[in-house]
C-alpha cells in the first residue's frame, strides 16, 4: 500500500506493507537514522518523533497511521531554531555521553517547549520520563533543557 | 592549561542531531541481514539440527551451524570452554545454535523458522548453591567450579579471639543487566582479497580481532576491526561482542556479502552477559574500642554456563571484599560456579559491587553490635598512606579516602541531617547511610599480560594533530579527555587536536577498554608519543637557538628555550621547520603499566598499580505502608587523582550513581527455577527514569597519582559500586530493618517492616 504524509516539512509518499512499523519506514525508506531503536516496545523513547504535533514512540506505530499526517524527526527538528538551541545547550551542559538516546531527548524537549516555553524543573522531569538514558543519570539532560528554555526566552 | 577545563565533548553535537552513525545505521551495497537461532531450552542434547530446507528459501544466502565453522568453534576469553555455536548440547536459554543471512529481516526470520531442531531437555543446574550436589549435572571440570581465589592473611583464630564483638551475616545480590541503550550489533564486510572488515559496537576491538581470526580461520593480518559510535557498554560490550562479530563474519565470508547482525532488545537480554548474582558470608569482629581484628569471607558467584570473564571478575571481587580497611587477619574464599544460565561477565565494578554490598553493610552491622557510630568505626579502621591493604600492598601515594570522607560528611552535614531526620514521624520515614569504598585502577595482577597500550599521533603540516588509540569511546568521554591531554602536552589549542575512530589496523593491540584504564593507560601512551614528536621538533629547533634539544620547551602555542623563554618561535613555525627537515612527526608511542604481583595461594601481592577512593552519603525516604524506598539525595565524593575534565567527571559520577541506585532499589533480572528468563525486556526489567533520579551532589577529590597523566587515575566504574550498601544502610537508619538482599524492592521492604512490627 502507498501512504502520503508530510515529513520534516516535505510532502512524501512511501510504498509500505500493512505490518511495517513507522520506525522502520523512517530509517530504511527515508534514511532518517537519527531515530533509534532501543527496545521495540515503546519503553525507551530512543525512537521518539513528533507526529501530528504530539510526541510518540515510532516503534509501536504502524506505518499506515502516517497517512495524511505531519511527522517530524530529529533530522527536521535539529534544523529548527528551537532544535539548534537545545542541541547547543545539551553540548554545553554535558548532556551527551554515548548519545544513542539523545536525539529522542531532543525531540521530547522540543515537544515540551513548544507547549510550554518556560517549563519548571518538575515539568521537565515529567516530560522526559518516557525516555531512558543509561549513561548520564539525567541531571545534565534536565539542565540542558532548562538552559535551552532560558536561551530561547532570552532570544525573544 | 586545557587539562582541568570543562571543554565541550568532541562528539556531542553529531550525536544530538542524529548524524553520528551507530552500527545499526550503516548500510552497504548488497548488504544482508543476519539472525541467530537461540536455544529456548536451558539444558539439553541436540538430537536433530537440519538446515537444508532453510537453505533452500529464496533470498536466504547462508545458514550455518557448528558444522560449518571454518576455524575454531571456541570463543577464547580466559578459558576455552565457550563455542560460538552449540555443538552437541545447549547449556543455557539463549545460547546460539545456528545463524542465517538473508536479503531482508523477514526472510531471515523465515529461515530461522525453517530450521528443524529437536532438543532433548535435561535437568538443569539452576541454583548455584547446588553446584557440588551429586544429582547436579557436571558442566565444568571436576566440580563445576570455574575459579577459586583465596586470601590468607595473619591468623583469623587469634584475631577473632581478641574481638569483643563478632557478627556473622549473609548477603545476597541479584543479576543486573547493563541496559546500554544501543543493543549489540556488528556489520561484517568480506574484502575482495579474502579478508574481513568488521564494524560494530564494542569495548575491546582486540578481543574481537582475535576472536574473528580464530572462528574464521583467517590470519590476523586479514582481519580488521573498526569500532563504530558505541551506544553505551558498561562492561556489557567487553567479551560478548566477540560472539556477535564471529557470527557476522562467518555469514559474510560464507555469503560473500556484507552482513549486518543486530540483536533486538529481548535477544540481547537473554543471550548477552550480566552482573553475577552472588552470596557472600561475612564474619567480622572488632575490639571494644572498634579495631577490626579479623574477617572471614566466603563468596559464591553464579557464573552461568561458560566461564567467560568469571575468573577475573571473581578476582576483583575478592580483592575488594574486605573494603578499604586495615585488617590484620583475614581469610577469604571466592568461587565462581557453573549453572545452566546465561554466562555472566563484566559489569561496571566487575565483581566488586557484590562484595562491597556485603562488607559495607557488615561494617554498619558491626558498629551496631559495638554500639558505636558507624562513621567512627570506619574512621578507626580506614586505610591510610603507608598502610597495607588486605593483600599486603603498601599504599605509597594517592590515597584520597580521608578527604572524600571529610568532604562528603561536611557537604551533607551528615550528623545534623541524621539527627534531624530521626525526629520525623509519620508513615514516611527518612534516614541516611554511608559507604566507603576503593577501586583498584586498571587490570592489575589479574591481567598483566594485557596491560599495554599504544597510541599513534600525527602532527599535520599546519600544526594540528590527530591521534588514534586502541582503547574505545563508549560514551564516557575518552576521546575528549585524551584530546585535552595531547593538546596540553603540545601546548596547542584543544580544537586543533582530533581523536580518530578506533581501527585495529592503525594502532597496536592496546588491551581491553575496561577496568577504568583508558584515561590513565592510553594517556600514558599518548604522552610517550607526544614526547617523541617534541624531541624530534626540538632537535630541529635547537640548532637555530644555539642550544641542545633538551633545553627546548613547549607551551602556550610556542616552542622556546627553557632557560631563555623570550627566545621562541610559534608552534606552527616549529612544525613547518621540522616538516621541511623531514623530522618524524607521526609516531607510535607505547606504554606498559607499572608492575603488579599476586600469589594465588595466599592472595598476597600488589594487586593494582593505584587505587581510587569514594565515600557516598545516601538520604532515603521509606514509605512504611508500601515499602517503596526513594533515594532522595546522594552526596558522592570521588578521588580520581586529577579531573582532566570536571564536567565529564561529574557525568561519570551522576550516571554511575544512578545505575547504582537502580541496582540498589529496582533492577532484578529473573531466571525461574527451570532456567527460563522471566523479564528479558524493558517493560519488565525497569531501569531508573528521570522520575527516579535523586539529586546528586558530585564531589571531586584530587589526590594526584604520580604515574598518571597529569596525576589522573581511572574511576569510571566507582560511582556505581558503593550505592547499594549506602542505600541499605540508610534504609536501616530510617526504619530499623536490615535488608541483606539486594535490590530493596517494595515487596521485600514491606515484608521486612511488617515482620519487625510483628516482632514488636
Description:
The complex is a heterodimer of chains A (156) and B (760). Chain A has 156 residues and is α+β, with helices and mostly antiparallel strands. Chain A has two domains: 2-73, Ubiquitin-like (UB roll), CATH 3.10.20; 78-155, Orthogonal Bundle (DNA polymerase, domain 1). Chain A has six helices and five strands, in the order ββαβββααααα. Chain A has helices spanning 22-29, 74-77, 81-93, 102-115, 121-127, 139-155, and strands spanning 2-7, 10-15, 48-51, 54-57, 70-72. Chain A has a five-stranded mixed sheet with strand order 2-1-5-3-4, with helices on both faces. In chain A, strand 3 and strand 4 form a beta hairpin. In chain A, helix 3 (81-93) packs across helix 4. The radius of gyration of chain A is 15 Å and the shape is globular. By secondary structure, chain B is α+β, with helices and mostly antiparallel strands. Chain B folds into three domains: 26-122 and 202-219 and 228-255, Aldehyde Oxidoreductase, domain 3 (Alpha-Beta Complex), CATH 3.90.1170.50; 278-444 and 600-759, Aldehyde Oxidoreductase, domain 4; 452-592, Aldehyde oxidase/xanthine dehydrogenase, molybdopterin binding domain (Aldehyde Oxidoreductase, domain 4). Chain B is 29% helix and 24% strand. Chain B is built from 19 helices and 26 strands. In chain B, helix 5 (205-216) crosses helix 6 (241-255) and helix 9 runs parallel beside helix 18 (723-735). The longest helix of chain B is centred in the C-terminal third of the chain and has 27 residues, at 518-544. The radius of gyration of chain B is 27 Å and the shape is globular. The mean pLDDT of chain B is 97. At the A-B interface, helix 3, helix 4, helix 5 and helix 6 of A face helix 1 and helix 16 of B.
Question: Which descriptors would you attach to this protein?
Answer:
heterodimer, A: 156 residues, alpha+beta, Ubiquitin-like (UB roll), DNA polymerase, domain 1, 2 domains, 6 helices, 5 strands, B: 760 residues, Aldehyde Oxidoreductase, domain 3, Aldehyde Oxidoreductase, domain 4, 3 domains, 7-stranded mixed β-sheet, 5-stranded mixed β-sheet, 26 strands
Amino acid at each position: 500500500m502507498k501512504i502520503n504524509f508530510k515529513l520534516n516539512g516535505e510532502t512524501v509518499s512511501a510504498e509500505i506493507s500493512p505490518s511495517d512499523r513507522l520506525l522502520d519506514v523512517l530509517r530504511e525508506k527515508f534514511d532518517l537514522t537519527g531515530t533509534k531503536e532501543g527496545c521495540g516496545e515503546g519503553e525507551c523513547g530512543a525512537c521518539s518523533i513528533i507526529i501530528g504535533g504530539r510526541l510518540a514512540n515510532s516503534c509501536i506505530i504502524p506505518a499506515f497511521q502516517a497517512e495524511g499526517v505531519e511527522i517530524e524527526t530529529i533530522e527536521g527538528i535539529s534544523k529548527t531554531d528551537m532544535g539548534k538551541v537545545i542541541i547547543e545547550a545539551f553540548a554545553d551542559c554535558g548532556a551527551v555521553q554515548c548519545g544513542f538516546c539523545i536525539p529522542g531527548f531532543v525531540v521530547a524537549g522540543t515537544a515540551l517547549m513548544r507547549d510550554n516555553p518556560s517549563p519548571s524543573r518538575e515539568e521537565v522531569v515529567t516530560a522526559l520520563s518516557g525516555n531512558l538514558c543509561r549513561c548520564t543519570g539525567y541531571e545534565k539532560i534536565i539542565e540542558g533543557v532548562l538552559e535551552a528554555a532560558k536561551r530561547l526566552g532570552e532570544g525573544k | 592549561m586545557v587539562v582541568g577545563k570543562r571543554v565541550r565533548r568532541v562528539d556531542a553535537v553529531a550525536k544530538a542531531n542524529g548524524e553520528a552513525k551507530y552500527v545499526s545505521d550503516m548500510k552497504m551495497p548488497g548488504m544482508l541481514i543476519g539472525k541467530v537461532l537461540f536455544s529456548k531450552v536451558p539444558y539439553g542434547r541436540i538430537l536433530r539440527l537440519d538446515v537444508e530446507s532453510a537453505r533452500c528459501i529464496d533470498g536466504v544466502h547462508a545458514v550455518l551451524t557448528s558444522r560449518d565453522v571454518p576455524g575454531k568453534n571456541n570463543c577464547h576469553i580466559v578459558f576455552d570452554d565457550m563455542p560460538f555455536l552449540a555443538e552437541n548440547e545447549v547449556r543455557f536459554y539463549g545460547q546460539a545454535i545456528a545463524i542465517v543471512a538473508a536479503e531482508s529481516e523477514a526472510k531471515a526470520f523465515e529461515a530461522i523458522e525453517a530450521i528443524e531442531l529437536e532438543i532433548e531437555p535435561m535437568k538443569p543446574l539452576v541454583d548455584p548453591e547446588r553446584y557440588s550436589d551429586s544429582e547436579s549435572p557436571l558442566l565444568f571440570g571436576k566440580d563445576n567450579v570455574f575459579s577459586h581465589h583465596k586470601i590468607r592473611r595473619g591468623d583469623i583464630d587469634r584475631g577473632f579471639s581478641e574481638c569483643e564483638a563478632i557478627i556473622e551475616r549473609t548477603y545476597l545480590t541479584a543479576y543486573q543487566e547493563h541496559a546500554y541503550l544501543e543493543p549489540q550489533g556488528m556489520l561484517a564486510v568480506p574484502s575482495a582479497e579474502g579478508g574481513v572488515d568488521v564494524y560494530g559496537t564494542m569495548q575491546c576491538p582486540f578481543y574481537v580481532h582475535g576472536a574473528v581470526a580464530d572462528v574464521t580461520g583467517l590470519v590476523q593480518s586479514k582481519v580488521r576491526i573498526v569500532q563504530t559510535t558505541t551506544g553505551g557498554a558498561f562492561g556489557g560490550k567487553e567479551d560478548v561482542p566477540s560472539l556477535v562479530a564471529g557470527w557476522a563474519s562467518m555469514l559474510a565470508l560464507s555469503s560473500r556479502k556484507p552482513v549486518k547482525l543486530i540483536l533486538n532488545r529481548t535477544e540481547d537480554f537473554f543471550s548477552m552477559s550480566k552482573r553475577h548474582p552472588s552470596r557472600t558470608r561475612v564474619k567480622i569482629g572488632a575490639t571494644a574500642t572498634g579495631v577490626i581484628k579479623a574477617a572471614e569471607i566466603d563468596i559464591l558467584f553464579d557464573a552461568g554456563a561458560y566461564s567467560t570473564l568469571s575468573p577475573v571478575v571473581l578476582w576483583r571481587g575478592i580483592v575488594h571484599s574486605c573494603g578499604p580497611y586495615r585488617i590484620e587477619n583475614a581469610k577469604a574464599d571466592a568461587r565462581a560456579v557453573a549453572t545452566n544460565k546465561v554466562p555472566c561477565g563484566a559489569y561496571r565494578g566487575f565483581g566488586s559491587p557484590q562484595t562491597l554490598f556485603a562488607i559495607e553493610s557488615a561494617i554498619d552491622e558491626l558498629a551496631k553490635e559495638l554500639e558505636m557510630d558507624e562513621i567512627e568505626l570506619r574512621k578507626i579502621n580506614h586505610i591510610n598512606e603507608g598502610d597495607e591493604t588486605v593483600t599486603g600492598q603498601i599504599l605509597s601515594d594517592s590515597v584520597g579516602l580521608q578527604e572524600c570522607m571529610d568532604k562528603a560528611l561536611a557537604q551533607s552535614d551528615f550528623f545534623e541531617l541524621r539527627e534531624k531526620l530521626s525526629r520525623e514521624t509519620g508513615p514516611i520515614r527518612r534516614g541516611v547511610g554511608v559507604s566507603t569504598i576503593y577501586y583498584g585502577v586498571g587490570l592489575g595482577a589479574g591481567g598483566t599480560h594485557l596491560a599495554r597500550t599504544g597510541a599513534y599521533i600525527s602532527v599535520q603540516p599546519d600544526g594540528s594533530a590527530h591521534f588514534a588509540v586502541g582503547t574505545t569511546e563508549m560514551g564516557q568521554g575518552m576521546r575528549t579527555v585524551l584530546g585535552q591531554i595531547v593538546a596540553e602536552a603540545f601546548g596547542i589549542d584543544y580544537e586543533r587536536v582530533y581523536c580518530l575512530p578506533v581501527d585495529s589496523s592503525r594502532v597496536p593491540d592496546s588491551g581491553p577498554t575496561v577496568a577504568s584504564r583508558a584515561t590513565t593507560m592510553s594517556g600514558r601512551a599518548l604522552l610517550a608519543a607526544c614526547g617523541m614528536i617534541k624531541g624530534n621538533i626540538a632537535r630541529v629547533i635547537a640548532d637555530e637557538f644555539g642550544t641542545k634539544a633538551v633545553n627546548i620547551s613547549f607551551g602556550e602555542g610556542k616552542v622556546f628555550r627553557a632557560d631563555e623563554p623570550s627566545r621562541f618561535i610559534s608552534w606552527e613555525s616549529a612544525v613547518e621547520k621540522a616538516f621541511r627537515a623531514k623530522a618524524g612527526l607521526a609516531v607510535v608511542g607505547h606504554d606498559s603499566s607499572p608492575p603488579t604481583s599476586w600469589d594465588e595461594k595466599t592472595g598476597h601481592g600488589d594487586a593494582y598499580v593505584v587505587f581510587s577512593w569514594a565515600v557516598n552519603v545516601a538520604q532515603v525516604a521509606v514509605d512504611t505502608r508500601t515499602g517503596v524506598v526513594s533515594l532522595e539525595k546522594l552526596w558522592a565524593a570521588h578521588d580520581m587523582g586529577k579531573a582532566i575534565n570536571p564536567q565529564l567527571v561529574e557525568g561519570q559520577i551522576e550516571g554511575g550513581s544512578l545505575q547504582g541506585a537502580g541496582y540498589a532499589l529496582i533492577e532484578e533480572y529473573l531466571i525461574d527455577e527451570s532456567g527460563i528468563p522471566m523479564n528479558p525486556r524493558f517493560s519488565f526489567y525497569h531501569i531508573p527514569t528521570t522520575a527516579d533520579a535523586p539529586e546528586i551532589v558530585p564531589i571531586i577529590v584530587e589526590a594526584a597519582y604520580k604515574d598518571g597523566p597529569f596525576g589522573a587515575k581511572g574511576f569510571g566504574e566507582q560511582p556505581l559500586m558503593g550505592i547499594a550498601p549506602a542505600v541499605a544502610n540508610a534504609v536501616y537508619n530510617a526504619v530499623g530493618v536490615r535488608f541483606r538482599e539486594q535490590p530493596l524492592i517494595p515487596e521485600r521492604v514491606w515484608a521486612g517492616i511488617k515482620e519487625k512490627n510483628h516482632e514488636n
